[in-house]
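note to self: the first set is below, dont mix up w the second
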Amino acid sequence: MRIGLGRSDVTPRVGVELVGFGAFINRHSIGVRDRLWARAMAIELDGAPVVIVSCDLCVLYRETTEQVGALVEEATGVPAERVAVHCTHTHSGPGTGGPLIGWGEPDPPYVELLPGRIAAAAIDAVAALQPATLAHAEVACEGVGVNREYDEAPTLEEALRDDWRPARPELTDTTAHVLVARDESGQMIGFASYFGCHPVVCCAQTRYIHGDYAGVATNLIEREHPGAVGLFLQGAQGDVNTCVVHEPEPESMLALDVIAGRYARAVRAGLAAAEPVEVDRLESVRREVEFTRREFGLEDFEGLLAEQEAIIHAPGASDTDQGVRLATVKAIAYRRFMVALREGRPVTQPTIVQGVRVGPIGLYGAPFEIFQAIKNDVVEAAQAPVPVVMGLTNDEVGYAPDRTAAERGGYAADQVPLMTGTLPMAKIHDELVATLLELDAELFG
């Protein structure tokens, strides 16, 4: 087996808008707290390598990830379908294009350059391939996240205590997976850590560029191991927030170091505890999937648009009002749907799922913010000895809510899909579990 690591700077210029947290909030960056990176690990065993790229970005859309794959194939010969492009989901990074208007406007020159900058990490990783071993550990990781759908968020004072734990830890990740790559001399050349929790310690009140707790922790571990490159793989974070969120900037920046420190301690424990794994097979499978959507017609969007226009054009309406700004985001999206329907164009597109087998480890990537219950169902039924469910991979199509959240409706199940120009999922819990388990059966059956 050979393993190679690569890293490329994807930090935008200061002044770009940062993504997330509200409609047209004009959250322009004022400085760089930590640089953003695309980090890649290439693994080769008796054939073409598989390359996994982790980007300190909120989301990437299929158009961009396919450009990355094409650039990597052109430069290295590695087939594009054996390249997985993943995002950590930091909300303190730039917009990267896509259909959503008003949630952090992308900087066009940055978006144009981005595929090449991401591909550079993968190209360097392939060039750096060398004989290496891989080790794995699953270690305790607590005091980071709280399930925002089913649990109460702590106060700032409570969250900053090292003994804080959520009331329902079973609804969050309580362990982290850590992979360690070492060269023939035993020197660590790279690592990957996996955990599911929204990187939202810093939010609407903060204006610095960084990778949030995941990026800060990974940078810290890299500095402790000069020459090593570390990837963070984001798990099922659709309904899990960090224990500190929506605080003023000074408190958020303090909490950022505290929570990143907790995660870094877990990664260090994993580096120390990792045991060698036998990598007898290396495979990648990739499928194009069209998940079932709820049905909406032209009349439905006409009614939805009328509701939002009533808010926008109400007497005394102001562009400083959050409700007006959110109604504007929705109105823009609904008008686009109506144009597409009148022109007979499709309003949904297929997306990509990908599975990678590295010996006993199964990495299953999907383009969603996945809820914990879905991940738990996959892990329980998977044939892989070490199954890992990764969100935000190769595309971005909104949330994958569990059955309860989907039936209840609201932000994740209804609002986000429509705002981002796609229709809400009809039965994504069952369909996504089945799809990822099909990848698992193909790789491990």
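second set (the one i keep forgetting abt)
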Amino acid sequence: MKLILSLHNIRSCYNVGAILRTAEGFGVSQVILSGYTPRIHDTNLLPHLRDKLDREIHKTALGAEDMLDIYSSGDIISELKKLRSDGWQIVGLENNISNVPLFALNNPALKSVLKDKVVLVLGEEVSGIDNSLYDIIDLFVEIPMRGQKESFNVSVAAGIAIYGIMNL
């Protein structure tokens, strides 16, 4: 299984760093940063702002940010379409949605519908994946919740999803 992560509109540098550390630990192929997700080593920022973001991301990434193939996309829809045309399946991690193909990570049928090259799209911490990306996503996966909360922190959810998908 090859896996690319797409982090779109993740607000927190600490969540980005934690996701990067987890991605490196599981051998994720690439990470795409888009929307307003903070970028590591962002040359478009003034040096003092770049240094601040780098320090915040590093606080939870602990060096993983320099071990991964990470790049920025100014047009994530075009990027995802290109990846799809190159044989990658686009999978969104979401919950509490309807009218889309939705599989629980622990559903045995998920293994039969996933390809061997997956782009996992993660969205904003509170509102999830931007609706503008729904049409490009081939299917959605969700983490079954057993408690009263409806969702996990995005960095925790990323770890669960990466582990679940890589170990199907």
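remember for set 2: Residues 2-166 form a domain with the Alpha/beta knot fold (CATH 3.40.1280.10).
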